[in-house]
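Researcher: Structure prediction, please.
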Amino acid sequence: MILIYSNNFEDFYRKQTKEVQKNINETVGLVQDMKVIPESILKRLENTDGLGEILVKTGTKIIQIFCFLDEGNLILLQMDFRSRLKKKRDDELEKAKKLREGILL
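Model: Predicted structure follows.
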């Protein structure tokens, strides 16, 4: 089962074109349907206590979805365009970590 935990995810999703939404749905659907998920689809992030990143390619941009698996459920935390700036990526990752901690308390 796929669970969406934050308004960030839904707000970002609604702002995308139908084509981009379709790409997101297909990629997330792959993760849900697979028993063994290749790292090319769901990358485990180091030093995050279980967070992962799903990357969705949309033309010239890449969307990153921070998520984790919990008792067989895929929990989607937040989504945004992937930044080339390390500071912005680190900030987004910290937000995702805090969201995850809030769920697991």
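Model: The chain has one domain: 2-104.
Researcher: Thanks, that helps.
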